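Hi support team,

I'm opening this ticket because the web form for multi-chain structure prediction keeps timing out on my end. I have pasted the exact lines I submitted so you can reproduce it. The total is 593 residues across two entries, so I didn't expect it to be a heavy job. Is there a limit I'm missing, or should I split the entries? Thanks in advance, R.K.
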Amino acid sequence: MLEVRGISKDYREFHLRDVTFSVGRGEHFIVLGPSGAGKTVLLEVIAGIIEPDSGRIFLNGEDITDLPPEKRGLAYIPQNYALFPNMSVFDNIAFGLKVRKVPKAEIEQKVRELSEVLGISHLLKRKPKTLSGGEQQRVAIARALAVEPELLLLDEPFANLDVQTRGRLINEMKRWKKELGFTALHVTHSFEEAVSLGDRVGVMLNGRLVQVGPVREVFSRPASEEVAKFLGFENIVEGVAEGRVLRANGLVIELPIEASGKIRIGIRPEDIVLSDEPLKSSMRNTFQAEVVGIEELGPLVRVRLKVDGVELSAFVTRSSVLELGIEAGKNVWVGFKASAVHVF
Amino acid sequence: MRRDYTLYLFAALGTFLIAYIAVPIAVIFLKQASDVGMLVKTLHDPYVIEAIRNSLLTATATALIALLLGVPLGYVLARKDFPGKSAVQALVDVPIVIPHSVVGIMLLVTFSNSILDSYRGIIAAMLFVSAPFTINAARDGFLAVDEKLEAVARTLGASRWRAFLSISFPMAFPSIASGAIMTWARAISEVGAILIVAYYPKTAQVLILEYFNNYGLRASRPIAVIMVSLSLGIFVILRWLVGRKNAGS
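Hello R.K., no limit was hit. The queue was backed up. Here is the completed structure from your submission:
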């Protein structure tokens, strides 16, 4: 639906270089990168606020590169939410509809509907200044969704929230997405957001989109050392949770917390322990695995393992590799604590 | 508790300036109070009434023109970088540093008969010396409005004009309004340039000078008192209105 082709832009200290990717209808696409990578500039180029030096942007096959922001049909939510301070919450949400000269009764209904889903019906008369961070975020999302945009451009939507609110709202966003069915391009530096919400992810480093793919694939197969370094989490397992157990491709993994439904978990490679005999310890998750590959990374060695249908990576020291006689094709025991499992 | 002597000293020094401004205003009123007869007589002088009316009308017209032209300029200065911008910024402040008699001469040399001794001339002189207040206040007001607000408004379908009208202008309004009030106040207190460009139609400022020269202090003081009451009164009321609107939003 959205296609970005070869966008380059020098803007202040940011340098976008040949950024190319596409977002499909209904998809939640995450651009993941450290701060200063140029993610906001990319969003503003797509929104039409900044003009690119080169490259084209297409929406549903139409070239929108030269259109002003108001003709693009994309809704932009900046990191600070940019609620209009001189208007009530109702007027904020209704703004795009009023601009479009939608009849009053229809505006009223639309605003009520959206605020119901987002749980902000009781705030409609308030001024944005009086809202908490989480409330502001909901209002910003309602305001953006009111105009039924082709695409939602989200800049670090959870960055200004405290940890608890963030966790709750990330979960709620999954629900809103189901109920309201929007397409999102979401820029963030948080792995948690990427793994929880992303269908696909593009990793952005120094103004370049260095790897694009499904979330699990990008995390488990970083295309380059810099991506791997940035991501850290290499083992992302997808499965169906029930209580404290996750079933993934024949594997049963014990979780540190209760969860339900389709979720993803992450395990850091350095948290996985290898042994040549069954592990006798308090670790709740132990499996028999087959070594499928070994990569030397300086003092550490990355061992790629296959456990039933799931691939895992583990970091071990060079001496353990020798001690255990690890080589491709060998069967080993792997283990990790339930507490090393991060549930997204 | 340890006393903060530095702050006391600063306050004492500052008090001098406050007194320096307040005392003459108080004195002129007190002095006039002992000469009510002259004040009443002046209030019935059609010449004086006419002059005061001229002053108020021209100053108000000046403020409106400054708004009409200065607000767009302030917006451009706040939002756009262009070659020569710093030169433009400097030029805006130039009228403040030019002696006002020089302003009058420059205007007269440039526009000669088209402004000589006319309302146009009074307004021209006033605008030249007072427009910077509106321009600078508008620029600062717009600078304080987060550009992201306009960006968001535009992605929601608003044209730049619509975003300006419904977001930037209302938010910058308190600043613009106080700039316009300053422009009005500066305009109504202008004498030097008006003396040269438009001695007639007579404004109160010029009339005070004329009465002072022809009849002395006693004759000119009542007009001065009336002028100060009017301009201070209007200035205070407008500032209060803007301040109230500001606090309310």
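A quick check on our side: Residues 46-79 of chain B form the longest helix (34 residues). Let us know if the file doesn't open in your viewer.
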